[in-house]
Amino acid sequence: MKASGGRSGAVGKGSRGILSGGRKLGYLIFLWTFQAEMMQRSCFMNQNAWFPPGMKEKMAATGEKQIYVVTGGSGFLGKHLVQMILDQEPNLAEVRVFDLHLDESMQDLDRVTLIQGDITNPDDVKAAVRGSHVVIHTASLVDVWGRVAPEKISAVNVGGTQNVIDACVSEGTQYLVYTSSMEVVGPNIKGVPFYRGNEDTRYEVIHKEPYPISKAKAEKLVIEANGRLMENGKRLHTCALRPTGIYGRNHPLMKEFYEQGLRTKRCMVRLIPASVEHGRVYVGNVAWMHLLVARKIQECPTVIGGQVYFCYDNSPYKSYEDFNMEFLRPCGFSLLGSRPLVPYFLLYFIALFNAFLQWLLKPFCTYAPIFNPYTLAVASTTFTVETDKAQRNFGYQPRYTWEESRNSTVKWLQEMDAQRQMGKNALAKVERTGNQEQKDASNGNQP
C-alpha cells in the first residue's frame, strides 16, 4: 500500500506521458499474465481424463500409441511403475523394461518387452530408447551402507543418467522423467530439520556419502538437459521427482527389518525419539506420480520441463521406528520404550565403531551394517515435505489412501510370516519323522 501511494503521488504531478506509458505497460503485463494463466488452466483441466479436451480422441483417431521405456523396470519401484502404466495408460503400445537383471515373471505381461542391458553401456541404452516416446529413468544403485564401491555408484547413477540423456537426444525421444531422491536435499549430517518443506525451502545441503552425491549430480544433469536440441531438430523436455522413503509390498529394506526383528524374538528396542518425524511414501503413489507427470510433460512441456517435485502422499509423519511398527506390530512385533533406551552419545559411538570396522575389514571382506554415522543422522533428523507444487502443476493427488497402503504392506508381511511358519512346521515334521525312524530302528536292533 505504501508503494502504491507513492506511485499515485508521482502521477498526480501531471505526468500524462508517464501515466499513458505505465497504463500500456500494465495492460501488456495483464494480457501476458492472463494468457499464461489460461494456458496453464487448459493444460490442467480434465485431469481425470489425463488429457486436455479432444487430445485423447485425436490420438485414438490417428492411431498414435505410446511407447514407454522404464529403466530399472525389474526393481522395487520399477515393477510397480510398469504395472501402473499397463493398468492406467489408455494409449499404450509397449512398455520396455530395461534392466541388468530381468525379472522373468514379467515376460508373460501383455505389451511388455524385456530388454537386458547395462545402463553404463551407451549402446545398450540407445538400443532400448530407440523409437520410444517417453523414458522414465528409475535405474539406480541405492547404497548408504558401503556395500558397493563409490566408483560403481557414480558410474551407474551419474554415468548411466548421462547415457540416458544422450540416448534421448540421439534417438529423438522428447520426454524424460527422472527418479531422483529426497536425499538430494537432505537430511544433512548436521542434523538440521526440514519441517514441511517444499522445493523452494532454503536448506543447507551437505553431501559426503557417495549415494546422495551421485543422485544430486544426476538430477542436475537431467534438469540442465531440459530444452536441449536433439538430432531430429526437436527439444528434449525433462523433469525429476524426489520421493521420500518409499515403502510397500516387496520393499527390500522392510524385509531386512522384519528378518532382524525375528532374530531378536520379535522384540525391538526404541533408539530414536518419537518426536523425530519423517515423510514416507507408498510405492503405488510414487508410480502414480511418475505416470501423471509423464503425461503432463507431453501436454505442457513449458510448465513441467526443467522442474523438480517432491514425491509424498498422506502417510503419517512418524519416526522410522514408529512408522515401521505400523506394519510389524500386526505380525506380532513390539517396540520397547516410549523414549530411547540407549543414549545418543552411545549410539553415535557404535556408529563410529561400525565405520571403523568397515574401514579395517575392507581389504578382506565387505562389512556393511545398516547402522553407521550417516544412517544415524538420517534417522534422527526430522525431514518432512509437502507436494503442493505437484498438485498445482499437474494435479497430483495420492491414488492410494494411507489405510490402503498400510493394509497392502501388512498383508505382504503376514503372507511372508505365514510362509515362514509353514516352512518351520514342515521342517519340524521332517525332524520328528526322522527321530521316530531312528528310534524304531534302534528298538528293532536291540537283542
From TrEMBL:
<feature type="domain" description="3-beta hydroxysteroid dehydrogenase/isomerase">
    <location>
        <begin position="69"/>
        <end position="335"/>
    </location>
</feature>
<keyword id="KW-0560">Oxidoreductase</keyword>
<feature type="region of interest" description="Disordered">
    <location>
        <begin position="424"/>
        <end position="447"/>
    </location>
</feature>
<dbReference type="InterPro" id="IPR002225">
    <property type="entry name" value="3Beta_OHSteriod_DH/Estase"/>
</dbReference>
<protein>
    <submittedName>
        <fullName>3 beta-hydroxysteroid dehydrogenase type 7 isoform X1</fullName>
    </submittedName>
</protein>
<dbReference type="Pfam" id="PF01073">
    <property type="entry name" value="3Beta_HSD"/>
</dbReference>
<dbReference type="InterPro" id="IPR050177">
    <property type="entry name" value="Lipid_A_modif_metabolic_enz"/>
</dbReference>
<feature type="transmembrane region" description="Helical">
    <location>
        <begin position="341"/>
        <end position="361"/>
    </location>
</feature>
<dbReference type="InterPro" id="IPR036291">
    <property type="entry name" value="NAD(P)-bd_dom_sf"/>
</dbReference>
<keyword id="KW-0812">Transmembrane</keyword>
<keyword id="KW-0472">Membrane</keyword>
<feature type="compositionally biased region" description="Basic and acidic residues">
    <location>
        <begin position="429"/>
        <end position="440"/>
    </location>
</feature>
<keyword id="KW-1133">Transmembrane helix</keyword>
<comment type="similarity">
    <text>Belongs to the 3-beta-HSD family.</text>
</comment>
